[in-house]
UniProtKB/TrEMBL annotation:
This is Signal peptidase I. One of its GO terms (cellular component) is membrane. Belongs to the peptidase S26 family. GO terms for molecular function: serine-type endopeptidase activity; signal peptidase activity.
Length: 250
């Protein structure tokens, strides 16, 4: 029996629908890859070094375009500034992400006296830094300390520290580098212990906290873990800190 034009059109409909669905799926994947590659990235806070600004269990949306030097992003970029919170590749172990606050930029002079931070001879006035340890740590609290180094100080940084500290006892930040500290100053592995953050290591700036889980003692992944898997687990096993949801990061 011969088939007519109507039968041919009917047979073509499922094929056309499947093709359109495939095209939509491919487009969605391309858009998602573009966003993740050039614009935004999810990041989980694994430690308390940035408390109270950022808490263990906060899930961040990181703006990767804000400092982008690649014109392919088509978005305006700006320089890294003092006070910026940045996500970056840990210089000692580049596959690991850290998040800290930039306190000094190239050319700045850094010094800490009895836990108080001085930049270019001026005392820090911002209120985000906290000190919880009433004890005294000579290296941590009076930086740079050149007479001795604790065991957790990177060896190469210890040598650079002597070379870059001026006669006045101030550490001078070289070109293309940044000095970062955790807001939780007494409990933060930061530039005091391993050195400067190169400009090329900076990934972006946290934009907002899109979700925050409670029970900080039960961290399910580290900064190197699978953020999506961690999020799925946390949403079904831990409670949500609603007061931190969609909070902008400053």
């Amino acid at each position: 029996m011969a088939t007519g034009p109507q039968t041919d059109r009917a047979d073509a409909r499922p094929y056309s629908l499947a093709l359109r669905s495939l095209q939509s799926l491919v487009l969605s994947i391309v858009v998602a890859l573009f966003i993740v590659t050039f614009l935004f990235q999810a990041f989980q806070i694994p430690s308390g070094s940035m408390e109270q600004t950022l808490m263990v269990g906060d899930y961040l949306l990181v703006d990767k375009a804000v400092y982008a030097e690649d014109a392919a992003t088509l978005l305006p970029a700006r320089e890294v500034e003092r006070g910026d919170i940045v996500v970056f590749h840990y210089p000692v172990q580049p596959e690991t992400y850290f998040v800290k606050r930039v306190v000094a930029v190239p050319g700045d002079r850094v010094r800490m006296v009895e836990k108080r931070l001085f930049i270019n001879g001026r005392a820090e006035t911002a209120d985000y830094a906290i000190h919880r340890d009433r004890g005294h740590d000579a290296y941590r609290d009076n930086f740079p300390e050149l007479r001795f180094a604790p065991g957790n100080v990177d060896a190469r940084w210890w040598l650079d520290l002597h070379r870059l500290t001026s006669a006045s006892g101030e550490l001078v930040v070289p070109a293309g580098s940044y000095f970062v500290l955790g807001d939780n100053r007494d409990d933060s592995q930061d530039s005091r212990y391993w050195g400067f953050v190169p400009r090329a290591n900076i990934v972006g700036r946290p934009l907002l906290i899109y979700w925050s889980r409670g029970d900080a003692a039960s961290a399910v992944t580290s900064a190197r873990g699978d953020t999506l898997s961690s999020l799925a687990y946390a949403m079904t096993h831990l409670y949500t800190r609603w007061d931190r949801m969609l909070r902008t990061v400053r």
